[in-house]
């Protein structure tokens, strides 16, 4: 196999004009020219020529642009050479492009960061733009699961249609089917008019089922039937409605554990988990913190807040923080800094004060050691009950979750928004937990 190389777009096009090549491997940067922006010329001459794009511009923008030109694969630098060789072998079978490149501005994209952990996410998103495969987004609270769902929708072939999100944890159990599938007038008490559900509202677009792990079993059964048949009928209705909807679901829970506990249907899990995307926690992508912080500072300005700049020392402190609440916690902290700091430059001292104010309940080493002893004692008591040996995790969580919620609410003076921010969880999730434990937030004021 003969291999030729070139350093400019002009040299590349001159070589390709011979028509003797079976594959093109191109960098985005070719001298002062954009290797992706000029690929339309290549595709116009030879639509079936497979193209592999490599780049040091490791952004979602680059991955999407490469995908939309019909590139066979995209490799962010640094990459595994053996993997590239394997992909070259696969790419020798030609394929046709389906979409043309678009000029996407990086500032308009929903995801920020160039860490290796995010590169896999970008590459997977790029592979999903031209199909309707069901997607399951996994990750801790605050990692940006809805942003990924929005990216798949707004950058994909369904972007002209609606993006309809629905939070399963925020809907009362007895109303969830009506919310999803709609209802006819008189179908239940209070149904004074007919109404379209989220499925109908999402026709031609994407339905995002957030926190799907909290969905009750009766609604899971009906959802499975809808996904299998491609049709729904409203609550109290008789006519079937044909669906034209892409399904993207998300959860921060362990699905296999839910299935083992009988809380989630295994067949529904496999129906929605066609393509999984796992979002890394912010602590595993610390190199992205500066880009995210600057992004949120610019976002604050666009929302009418004063312009602020982080000093190098302030940025380093942010990068070292553990970020238990992930990207959401970072965004909230940046906004508090912008609002509360008097100086335009956000110093290390200003950052530390905000972090300490949010984590003032952290204990010193002696207290933590005592807490660990107490945990071991409680676990020992729970393990003594041999009849419930297989539910240790759930029972231990119940032992510690209630007092934790009560203490955080007390420190937040009963303010659920502040408590949710301190915990690094969604407010709807907090409200659900308070209901489960019968905790009245007003008693903490």
Please outline what is shown here.
Keywords: Activator, ATP-binding, Cytoplasm, DNA-binding, Nitrogen fixation, Nucleotide-binding, Phosphoprotein, Repressor, Transcription, Transcription regulation, Two-component regulatory system. With 445 residues, the protein is of the alpha/beta class.
What does this structure look like?
- The protein is of the alpha/beta class and 445 residues long.
- The chain has four domains: 9-119, Rossmann fold (3-Layer(aba) Sandwich), CATH 3.40.50.2300; 128-278, Rossmann fold (3-Layer(aba) Sandwich); 291-358, Helicase, Ruva Protein, domain 3 (Orthogonal Bundle), CATH 1.10.8; 368-444, Orthogonal Bundle (Arc Repressor Mutant, subunit A).
- The chain contains 19 helices and 14 strands.
- It has helices spanning 9-16, 39-45, 60-68, 81-91, 116-127, 145-155, 176-181, 198-201, 217-229, 255-260, 266-272, 289-302, 312-320, 326-340, 348-358, 365-383, 392-411, 416-423, 427-437, and strands spanning 24-27, 29-30, 33-34, 51-55, 73-76, 135-138, 163-167, 206-210, 231-232, 241-242, 246-251, 275-278, 309-310, 345-346.
- Helix 12 (289-302) packs across helix 14 (326-340) and helix 13 (312-320) packs parallel to helix 15.
- The model is unreliable at 94-108 and 361-368 (pLDDT under 50).
The average pLDDT score comes to: 83
Based on the coordinates given, report the CATH architecture of the largest domain.
3-Layer(aba) Sandwich
Radius of gyration, rounded? 26 Å
Give unreliable regions as ranges.
Answer: 94-108, 361-368
In whole angstroms, how far apart are the ends? 75 Å
Question: What topology, given as strand order, has the largest sheet?
Answer: 7-8-11-6-12
Overall, the morphology is: globular
CATH level 3 topology of the largest domain = Rossmann fold
CATH class of the largest domain: Alpha Beta
The biggest sheet amounts to:
5 strands, parallel
Structural class by helix and strand composition: alpha/beta
The strand count comes to 14
Helicity, in percent?
Answer: 40-55%
Number of domains: 4
Pfam families: AAA_lid_14, HTH_8, Response_reg, Sigma54_activat
Keywords: Activator, ATP-binding, Cytoplasm, DNA-binding, Nitrogen fixation, Nucleotide-binding, Phosphoprotein, Repressor, Transcription, Transcription regulation, Two-component regulatory system
Modified residues (4-aspartylphosphate): 27
Domain Sigma-54 factor interaction: 111-339
